[in-house]
Design goal:
about 220 residues; Rossmann fold; 5-stranded parallel β-sheet; 4-stranded antiparallel β-sheet; about 25% strand; globular; binds adenosine-5'-triphosphate; ATP binding; lyase activity
Length: about 220
């Protein structure tokens, strides 16, 4: 479902004497439906960089990244938008939304964009916000003033509102209390049971061990190896 084939990534810092940072060399990873792979490796080994390449935010220097049969290193903007709409979700660490959009709409929006009716999307959004313990009186407010943990839960609700077949998780439990952390771990395991292929970064090792089938250490894919 998510295939990373011989991927290399070097950053060139044009405003700093053309300095080159070789982050990944010949990285390979294959994630099957229903599998969760955790990315590990020392700080700076390229975990976030690889996730951003898979989501199409960073270009790939070499190699191919295949999502559900499409090579996203060659995809145009229209194809990439369609993949993000229907196939690949991304739970980022920080919520990025437009100001003044109510929480309920923020959560339902990706599902509506993927073709669901407003009524069905709002119903699903309400179920998820309830499950993630966001009090109902906050649903009509913008999440921009919410606490860090509340914002993270809105972000998770938004990414789980529709059943993406592939999902990227960037520290999904980082700012959560125990009960919400357990809820998110259950949601990840349910998505897995429903066939989602997932790649995650978890600094919370206990959470990682409860969801990950495999751990891949990106330090093995650096230029020194
Ligand atoms: N946009 C960028 N421009 C230049 N260098 C970058 C950029 N993004 C990442 N890097 C460099 O790539 C390397 C890997 O960074 P990355 O954030 O992927 O590491 P990580 O494994 O996720 O680290 P951490 O565990 O600390 O979050 C770092 O040396 C970083 O400086």
């Amino acid at each position: 479902m998510i295939e990373v084939l011989n991927v290399s990534k070097t950053f060139t810092l044009y405003n700093q004497q053309q300095a080159r940072i070789e982050v990944l060399k010949d990285a390979n990873l294959n994630v099957m439906p229903g599998e969760c792979v955790a990315l590990a490796g020392v700080s700076g080994s390229g975990k976030s960089t690889l996730m951003r390449m898979i989501y199409g935010n960073y270009l790939t220097n070499e190699g191919r990244i295949i999502i559900d049969g499409t090579d996203i290193t060659e995809a145009n903007a229209h194809q990439m938008m369609s993949i993000r709409r229907h196939t690949l979700g991304y739970v980022s660490q920080f919520l990025r939304v437009l100001p003044r959009v109510p929480t309920l709409k923020v959560v339902a929006e990706p599902m509506i964009a993927a073709g669901a009716s407003e009524q069905a999307a709002h119903q699903r959004a309400k179920e998820l916000l309830t499950r993630l313990r966001i009090p109902e009186h906050l649903w009509s407010l913008s999440p921009l003033t919410f606490s860090g943990g509340e914002q993270q839960r809105v972000n998770i609700a938004r990414s789980f509102c529709q059943p993406y077949p592939a999902l990227l998780l960037d520290e999904p439990t980082a700012s959560l209390d125990g009960a919400n952390r357990d809820t998110v771990i259950s949601m990840i395991n349910e998505a897995k049971a429903n066939g989602a292929a997932m790649i995650g970064i978890f600094h919370d090792i206990e959470a990682r061990d409860r969801v990950a089938d495999r751990v891949v250490d990106l330090s093995n894919f650096t230029a020194e190896h």
